[in-house]
């Protein structure tokens, strides 16, 4: 094989590697954006975070993130996540913020039913107080280890808090990528997988299904559908990560 052929092969391999790396960063960014959007959706309509959903720029970013995720495997015409997000936003616009506030109070205010409570601990089968206290301590430990402070008005196991944390971790992983910090990147990646497996994915999947099946009001069932679509993609991604680790 001559030198020119060697250079050509090396160039093609490096180009393919750079494209793969760039694609990986785009997927991480898309996931972070959608986790941030979910955090806003379930933060409560009276919050500043929820009001961000009224922003055209944010809606565009989330729509692009949905499209990016659904095309990561070059699968055509798989836009269920994007469709779900658009339906949710259309419903938000048609109902208006004040109506959504009333709906939120009816569903989540006072003492919500266990099926639709937006708190991880309420979905645990183990009702032992010590066990639940330990789970809450584990969550706070995760947050503090990565420099995220939970506001006193929020619970560490609330879906909005958990999704904000996952969005934050994904951003940290992107920064580690950009700065060639291999060890930090692996720490973030492992933390995301561990947090999803131990504290997040299973209960949130049930929560999203219950919103669709047990809530009559129009906005939050659509929020549950959007969340469920995203969680299924995250569980698929987690499966791929586990497969890679086993190789």
Characterization of the model:
By secondary structure, the protein is mainly α. 74% of the residues lie in helices and 0% in strands. The protein has helices at 3-41, 48-51, 56-70, 80-95, 97-108, 129-145, 159-178, 182-214, 219-246. Helix 1 (3-41) crosses helix 3 (56-70), helix 4 (80-95) runs antiparallel to helix 9 (219-246) and helix 7 (159-178) packs antiparallel against helix 8. The model is unreliable at 3-19 and 243-247 (pLDDT under 50).
Unreliably modeled segments: 3-19, 243-247
CATH class assignment: Mainly Alpha
Rg for CA atoms: 20 Å
Category by helix and strand content: mainly alpha
- Return the CATH topology: TorD-like
What oligomeric arrangement do these chains adopt? single chain
Question: What's a concise summary of this model?
Answer:
This protein has 247 residues and is mainly alpha-helical. It is 74% helix and 0% strand.
Topology:
Blueprint: H1 3-41, H2 48-51, H3 56-70, H4 80-95, H5 97-108, H6 129-145, H7 159-178, H8 182-214, H9 219-246
Give keywords.
TorD-like; single chain; disordered N terminus; 247 residues; globular; mainly alpha
